[in-house]
Amino acid sequence: MNYVGIDEAGRGPLAGPVTICGVKYNGINIYGVRDSKQITQKKREILYKEILKTHEVFVVMVNNKKIDELGIQVVLEDGIEQIYRYFGETKCLIDGYFRNIPDKCETIIKGDQKIYEISAASIVAKVVRDNFMTSVGKRNEFSVYNFGNNKGYGSKYHFEMLRKYGLSKLHRKTFIHLNKVEKE
């Protein structure tokens, strides 16, 4: 049976979207595919291209405003549902733990380290999100935050720029503890 592996990138950053990806297994294993956090950026980019060439892939990207409005958990579960429907309601294996998922889906803690399809999805989700943050970070209005390097995560430099310039329209207002920004 062909499964769809689902994983996300960008659950915890202070800025930018969350990206949820589904990869349908087609019988081909690409050497080197494993959890995106265990692979260098250069290797991820190479594997990403191979995955897109050889597997069926569907990506859902949800912006920071929707995350603030609905909450990260709801947004992730909605993305999972979209992927499930896209692939024709086939069996899905999802990294992590979620309560509100389709019946034919199964969650697997650390699935990105155990299941090939989930590992492939983690690579695609991370590359798509990282490339988006790098690209948007080059715009004048966002350049001070250095999104090309921190990808929206709470680095020391990112917090310094938040204190100096405040929030941009890409920041997740519900993720940033302004008292932490002001006191540090």
How would you summarize this macromolecular structure in one to three sentences?
With 184 residues, the protein is α/β, with parallel strands linked by helices. It has helices at residues 41-54, 64-70, 72-86, 111-114, 116-137, 147-150, 156-165, 178-183; strands at residues 4-9, 18-24, 56-62, 92-95, 105-108.
Please, could you describe this protein's structure?
With 184 residues, the protein is of the alpha/beta class. The protein folds into 2 domains: 132 residues, Nucleotidyltransferase, domain 5 (2-Layer Sandwich); 41 residues, no CATH class. The chain is 45% helix and 15% strand. It has a 5-stranded mixed sheet, with helices on both faces. It starts with a strand and ends with a helix. The mean pLDDT is 92.
CATH topology of the largest domain: Nucleotidyltransferase, domain 5
What's the CATH architecture of the largest domain? 2-Layer Sandwich
* Biggest β-sheet: strands ordered side by side in the sheet: 3-2-1-4-5
Detail the poorly predicted runs.
Answer: none
Any idea what the shape is?
globular
Q: Helix fraction?
A: 40-55%
* Rg of Cα set: 17 Å
Question: Could you say how many structural domains there are in total?
Answer: 2
